[in-house]
Amino acid sequence: MGGVRVAYLKRVLVGPPMSLAQAKHERLSKRVALAVFASDPLSSVAYATEQILLVLILAGTVALSYSLPIAVGIAALLAIVVMSYTQTVAAYPQGGGAYLVSKDNLGKYPSLVAAGAILTDYVLTVAVSVAAGIAAITSAFPTIARHRVLLCVAAVVAIGLANLRGLRESGRIFTIPTYFFVVSILAMIGYGMTATTFGWLAEAPYEPHPPGLEGVGIFLLLRAYAAGCTALTGVESVADGVAALKAPESRNAQKVLIAMGAISITMFLGITYLAYDFGIVPGGEQTVVSKIARRVFGGGVLYYTVQAATTLILLLAANTAYADFPRLSSIVARDRYLPRQFASQGDRLVFSNGIVMLSAFAILLLLLFSGDTDTLLPLYAIGVFLSFTLSQGGMVRRWMRLKPAGWRWRIWVSGAGALTTFVVLVTLTVTKFSEGAWIVVVVIPALVAVFVTIHRHYDEVAHELSLTGFEGPPTLQHTILIPIGDLHRGVVRALQYAKTLAGPDVAIRAVYVETDPARTTRLEEKWGQWGLGVPLVVLTSPYRSLLRPLLDYIDALQSRGSDHMITVVVPEFLPRRWWQHMLHNQTALVIKAALLFRRNTVVADVPYLLKH
Amino acid sequence: MGGVRVAYLKRVLVGPPMSLAQAKHERLSKRVALAVFASDPLSSVAYATEQILLVLILAGTVALSYSLPIAVGIAALLAIVVMSYTQTVAAYPQGGGAYLVSKDNLGKYPSLVAAGAILTDYVLTVAVSVAAGIAAITSAFPTIARHRVLLCVAAVVAIGLANLRGLRESGRIFTIPTYFFVVSILAMIGYGMTATTFGWLAEAPYEPHPPGLEGVGIFLLLRAYAAGCTALTGVESVADGVAALKAPESRNAQKVLIAMGAISITMFLGITYLAYDFGIVPGGEQTVVSKIARRVFGGGVLYYTVQAATTLILLLAANTAYADFPRLSSIVARDRYLPRQFASQGDRLVFSNGIVMLSAFAILLLLLFSGDTDTLLPLYAIGVFLSFTLSQGGMVRRWMRLKPAGWRWRIWVSGAGALTTFVVLVTLTVTKFSEGAWIVVVVIPALVAVFVTIHRHYDEVAHELSLTGFEGPPTLQHTILIPIGDLHRGVVRALQYAKTLAGPDVAIRAVYVETDPARTTRLEEKWGQWGLGVPLVVLTSPYRSLLRPLLDYIDALQSRGSDHMITVVVPEFLPRRWWQHMLHNQTALVIKAALLFRRNTVVADVPYLLKH
Hints:
The structure is a homodimer of 612-residue chains. Chain A is an alpha/beta fold and 612 residues long. Chain A is built from 23 helices and five strands. In chain A, helix 7 crosses helix 19 and helix 17 (373-402) crosses helix 19 (437-465). The interface between A and B is large, with 88 and 88 residues.
């Protein structure tokens, strides 16, 4: 009855189960795939420019002009990585995430490092994207900024539930926002550039220009470059999700990658240029994109459209991680580096366990960092560039090993990608270490240790359970014990259960713990008529405990034979109403708790359905 | 293993179990009984005077002098009630609480009202006494007043744990504080009166004299009288605990009652007189007793001694409820008006369930009322006077029925007690209704409704389970199902368990849910060698769910016969380390959860001990 109610609740929240026949239709078209997988890299433009400016402003407003060459450098890096990844998706049509590529080409430990990095990053994708999405809302409506953390958590919960309903629906629902965002941002850039050229815009409002605290040096520029590299986050997700695309998977994935790269670079450079041109100073209540949009469109409907589009794509980016985190953790779990339950699929074709884990960790991060994008971002890019490096390094090894047509050229492409991302990785780790990157540097090796420990345990258990060399099980002696406190129809049912179930070699005993000799006499009288011939063992209790004599009796029985199996049959009432559970079965619960995880002891509850 | 650890923790916290042989020694001597049971009424003097003054001050400081006649009136009432109760304890040497006396003489509903009133009051005794005890500390050290609620909760938790360790130890530990309090207060009164007579005391510090907001009228005086009646709380506890005293129980209880009454009246009148004589104005950071003690002893060691003694006796008063609440709830539970588990005794000769309940409700009240004595007290006295009235009314009925020697005189004594307490009860309800007394007026009938509902359910179930007219159980068909995901030593053990346990008429089936036909083929090959001849049922899953096909299969089997018992044998691993539990048994857990409380379905876990 409790079970039925839970199942009903689950049905309402996550929808009916889906059959395997529906699985084929879950494959995504290019148009939908761009919306689902490319939303993550595309949405990064909502915060990447701001991250560059937040570093440069440390040297005063004059230094903000360095944002242009830095942005061009980042766009070049993005182009290199996209080029490199087109090779990866071609080589791995079944899904070419950094874990699989590293495992295939670099071996066990690099692949586990990649898995740790990417799993961490999916959590950060959710946390960062949701935080940035909520920041777009609070930029438009500063009065609700104090509810930021609550809004973030609510968003994660909503996305998690949407994903428990299944991927295809998620894809269909979320197609529109991606294109809505791209169109909004491109329109803002196009109109902004035109308007500023022809002098159509009103005077810029006054913004305080903070004085520079540092000089412009190579370290500051490196930090700004590293901060802007958050624009590259999410590229991996296309490679990871190749298998979810319609056939031909690799060609479609390449097209999605290139389209994503082109749009991403255009938007990123456009936003950075307008920020420079408008003299936008980062910080305060609004995001940089919000400031640009206000400048271009004033405070009207179009401004709110841009903010809405930004929020939607960022929530969709968070959703990307929901498509990939469970998929990757199931792959890792099938390799026995994560608990087995992550490998199994839920009622629907989504991996519920992973979805729940991902939501939980993302909420934890949002609570720890008060839903603040700027403090979360330093943790983010490290894992991204670590997996880039491993993945592309793996591709280099692959080309060297397999030597396919054009392998020298391929090595150049993948090698350039691996090298540049490695340089960025080192820069990121050095420049952002004290800002939170150290957390990732601690977490990833810890995850690898967890993976290895889990794997070793499963290996040992598999060896222990293997039937190879098995001599056959030892012979078992059996006793069924039925602890009783009285004799009534429920007990008779349990006695009958035991009697009709058990074979002739199985001893059956009803066990009664005596607290009052007068009651024992009454019980023994009834036993003659209704005991069904089962012997009644009366245990005396020096303590008034009911449990201790029973446990002592079981100990005594089991100390005789080496493999004496005791099945304890506990009569249990099923009352009609939930609150009546509190009035029954307390003793049964105590017995079950005491015998839980006890060797050679099995507890079986025999239910008795009450009419009242 | 989990069970062992819990048992160990319990042992450390609440001590080793106690044998029945020790039970006799738990009986209390008069000296100890006075400390344990009379601490509650004695401690009431710590707040009763203050409650009178807090009402009178509403009419200005001039009205404070009315405290003297009011206190004399209350002392007279206390004397009447004590006299009346000496008859009760003589008539009920097995324990003469209002519940038993009402049940015996007035019938079911009055006894349930009494039970509801007294159980509510025990909770309030804990809450009020702890709040007042902490107030004595914060009077001495006003800087910690802001931690009041925390201190109150910590005190309740400490007392609760002490009681889980057993009554006798509690009695021994707490003997000293009662006498310490009595001596301290009497010394304060004696020295205070002497010193003020001979003019030894320093000038009184200035206290602001608030202007009167109300005139002195009969209603104000009634309210003040009702407020002071909190001095009578706790008298019931001696009558309730008679059975815990050494033989002759009744005589000893009478002596304890009279001693308690005499000491209580002396202290109450003394404190009220000094408060009047010193012109003490109630309110502010200090209690009235604290102000008197400061005036008498200055701020030195003797002052702190009085405060310490006050705190200790109030905590001991809270402890009284711990001796009585579980005792009464076990009596009520044995009459089947409360859940059965309240009737049972824990590992030690205390009723753990009641102790835990009492602490939980007291903590709830302390949190709701921010640990403030003055706002808790209006709730308190209603239940006390309700049970006084019922108990003494019951005694009147008893004398009328049994007509023992001197029954006319006895009716006069009990009748006077019943009448006066009834008048106070009505006064209390009227004057304190809006201050919180309405809560008690709602809670007591609600409790009576709960008692009656529980009783009716147990009656119906007893009737349903009765063997009278039982035709004998219907014949049972049996099937044992063993859901498996693979074939290994753990599964072989489960198969062997089922085979050697089951009789010849029991069908045994291993059930495998197919997700990949290739795996099925491999399983079937192994099955020939290690399946122990158990038929293997392969279920296909249209959904990738493992659970649904199993449930459908069980449904199909059970739809055939009317009483088809299915025992689902689930192989379960017992790993060596706690964290490894997370790596196993998830499927077993899901199956168990789905079959919990299902009719005619028994789940049996067969444990397999892992070496790794």
